[in-house]
Design brief:
Shape of chain A: globular
Strand content of chain B: 15-25%
Helix content of chain A: 40-55%
CATH class of the largest domain in chain B: Alpha Beta
Number of domains of chain B: 2
Number of helices of chain A: 3
Family (chain B): Belongs to the thiolase-like superfamily. Beta-ketoacyl-ACP synthases family.
CATH architecture of chain A: Orthogonal Bundle
Strand content of chain A: under 5%
Largest interface: A-B, 22 and 25 residues
Pfam families (chain A): PP-binding (PF00550)
Oligomer: heterodimer
Order of helices and strands of chain B: EEHEEHHHEHHEHEHEHEHEHEHHEEEE
Low-confidence stretches of chain B: none
Pfam family, one (chain B): ketoacyl-synt
Number of strands of chain A: 0
CATH superfamily of chain A: ACP-like
Distance between the termini of chain B: 8 Å
Protein name (chain A): Acyl carrier protein
Structural class of chain A: mainly alpha
Helix content of chain B: 25-40%
CATH class of chain A: Mainly Alpha
Organism (chain A): Streptomyces netropsis (Streptoverticillium netropsis)
Number of helices of chain B: 13
Order of helices and strands of chain A: HHH
Radius of gyration of chain B: 20 Å
Structural class of chain B: alpha/beta
CATH architecture of the largest domain in chain B: 3-Layer(aba) Sandwich
Chain lengths: 98, 407
């Protein structure tokens, strides 16, 4: 599975148009101008891809912190249910329908 | 020109005929239809449309803006930026609270609704995008354009179905007249080539079903017309009071000198068979401009290519003008873009007056029986014009007409 950091960085660039070079583990969402609306959208997309439930990130969290948190969540779940669902792509994740 | 006129100092357009004002004009001059099979509509009974196929909002505007809104907003933003640039206005230094935004929109965005309704139906509420509403509501197009341009005066969307773009320009003219603003960004937008749009209009029997010939399906005033063709587009005009435009040395392309609106009070979709509502709107626009019918040298018609609309419109024009001046409908080329249509017609009318050229109506091979109109076909016609009207008629019996004078 794509590491959480890579997934987050990819979504920030592909979906939200944030230049790749601005995204570092130390960058906060606020610094990247990812506002609360965009954070909810990002969380929605990540939840659907990784099949985890997330609290809303604070603007002062960094991309690295959020990714580490996500990796822990996914690992915990893998411990509990070895046959975690994969491949079942929910509709909303597909990004803009056209 | 009088003090109550609004000067048109900028035009922007994104249409199936071309991305940009001049590209659209050149495309329309070709006199051909831009309808084609549409992959978005694959599998539907009507699977063709007129689309702006090379339009990529994310690439033109940046995904930082476009991720949160639908395509009808992207179209409007691109057209608005072009119009403001054409007017040589500097958005950094203009008196922002004195700039209004009025945009017409017949429907709303539809890019994500199918997916979000599926999420709702299947119990995945947490998967519904937080942008579901704000990306698609009609008012958001005016709001997003206002934010993008930092135009901070009155800001609204007009909703009069297929007359919305015309209503927006008339309403913006009125805001200028009352002194509520010094500059108005006015026009219309819609992206109607969405699956539910095709299905719903098909169910109303409003669409052409000429799948054998998508490019020839939209044929205003033609004997073989069988309905309209869904489209997508945006057009935006910059309007200013003439003395304001002159004081800043702006190039004036033409004037909005009259605006008339009316309602049929007859039927949800069918026009009044006598065209009484439409006629009242034309006469109101002329009265507003203090113009006589003899001063109208060209009519940019609504001409949707539906059997009933075109018949009623042709008969109404014959009654008002006795011998109507040269008529055109650009919907033969680019189909029906609903809320954008009136704004495109307005932009084309101003450019026609400026260039003394009437655009051709694509696909008109044989004028329908009983129509006594001089419809321009095949190629642009050079014609001396001092003034012209553009008329629009919407579902709900909502009619709007603009009267333009050459600069």
């Amino acid at each position: 599975m794509e590491p959480a950091y890579d997934l987050m960085a990819r979504l920030l660039t592909e979906h939200f148009g944030i230049p790749e070079e601005e995204i570092t583990p130390d960058a906060t969402f606020e610094q990247l101008e990812v506002d609360s609306l965009a954070r909810v959208e990002l969380i929605t997309m990540i939840e659907d891809r990784l099949h985890v439930a997330l609290p809303e990130e604070h603007g002062d969290a960094t991309v690295g912190e959020a990714a580490a948190y996500l990796d822990r969540l996914v690992a915990d779940r893998a411990d509990r249910e070895p046959a975690a669902p994969t491949g079942d792509q929910p509709v909303a994740m597909a990004g803009p329908a056209r | 020109m009088s003090a109550s006129d609004a000067a048109v100092t900028g035009i922007g357009m994104v249409t199936p005929a071309g991305l940009g004002r001049e590209a659209t004009w050149d495309g329309l001059c070709e006199g051909v239809g831009f309808g084609a099979r549409d992959p978005w509509l694959a599998g539907l009974p009507v699977d063709f449309s007129c689309g702006v196929h090379d339009f990529d909002g994310g690439a033109l505007l940046g995904k930082r803006i476009t991720w949160r809104n639908d395509r009808f907003i992207h179209l409007a933003m691109v057209a608005a930026r072009e119009a403001v640039a054409d007017a040589a206005l500097d958005t950094d230094t203009w008196d922002a609270p004195r700039v209004a935004v009025v945009l017409g929109c017949a429907s709303n965005g539809g890019d994500r609704w199918a997916a979000e309704y599926r999420n709702l139906a299947e119990g995945r509420v947490e998967s519904i995008s937080p942008t579901a509403l704000l990306r698609s509501l009609p008012n958001m197009v005016a709001g997003e354009v206002s934010t993008d341009l930092q135009a901070l005066g009155p800001c609204l969307t007009t909703s009069t179905a297929c007359a919305a773009g015309t209503t927006a320009i008339g309403t913006a003219r009125d805001l200028l007249r009352t002194g509520a603003c010094d500059i108005a960004i006015a026009g219309g937008t819609d992206c109607a080539r969405v699956p539910m749009g095709s299905a719903a209009f098909y169910r109303m029997r409003a669409l052409s079903e000429n799948r054998q010939d998508p490019a020839g399906a939209s044929r205003p005033f033609d004997a073989d017309r069988d309905g309209f063709v869904l489209s997508e587009a945006a057009a935006v005009l910059v309007l200013e009071r003439p003395e304001y435009a002159r004081a800043r040395g702006a190039h004036i392309r033409g004037y909005v000198s009259g605006y008339g609106a009316s309602s049929d009070g007859f039927h949800p979709t069918r026009p009044d068979p006598e065209g009484a509502g439409a006629r009242r709107a034309v006469l109101a626009a002329l009265a507003d401009a203090r113009a006589d019918v003899s001063e109208v040298h060209h009519v940019n018609a609504h001409g949707t290519s539906t059997p009933l609309n075109d018949r009623v419109e042709a008969s109404m024009l014959s009654k008002v003008f006795r011998t109507p001046p040269p008529v055109t409908s650009v919907k033969g080329a680019i189909g029906h873009s609903l809320g954008a249509a009136g704004a495109i017609d307005a932009a084309c009318t101003v450019m026609s007056l400026e260039r003394q050229l009437v655009l051709p109506t694509a696909n008109l091979d044989r004028l329908d029986d009983g129509m006594d109109l001089d419809v321009v076909t095949k190629q642009p016609r050079r014609h001396r014009m001092e003034a012209a009207i553009s008329d629009s008629f919407g579902f709900g019996g909502q009619n709007a007409v603009l009267f333009f004078r050459a600069a």
